[in-house]
Specification:
4 helices, mainly alpha
Amino acid sequence: SELSAIKDKFQTQLGELDKGALSIFRNNEETKDQIEKIKLGELDIVKENVRLGVISTEKGEAEKVRIAKDASDQLNALEDARLEKIKEVYSQISETIMEFSANRAEAESLRVTEEADKSMSIEQTKFDRQLQIAEKAGKNTEGMEKEHAIKMEALEEQKQNKLTEIKRKQFVMEKANEDKRAAGEQRIQAA
């Protein structure tokens, strides 16, 4: 019958449905409409068969329940697929953001390290020249050496503080992402 052909076509379309994120959202309403049309068509056939006496009223009622259940099962499967796709897309977006964030943090760490190493190298070169001049002049260099060690230690500490801040920000970002992912999965499972 025509209804069976529509149902078969619909089942084929479901089988071929592109599960891509845009496709699943675009096709969702159309698919819901097709499920509803098939359900209504099957219900009309059952009513007509009961009216014509082809099947009993009890059998007709059982068929109506089966048809409603089938439609409900199809709608539930469609919603499950949609929610799974949302979860997948969110996960992909989240991974991309985290990868970008990690790359940014790594680049920032490299920049901080390079700048600190450059500053320390400049400071060391300045100190070496001043030390050489002082030694040639016969001056006591002990105070200069202590002052230089303090400066170098301060520069190293400053570098470590900046690196720690970058790592802390990255940790906060990762933790927030994990919390959002967990909350999103809970919402999807609850739905």
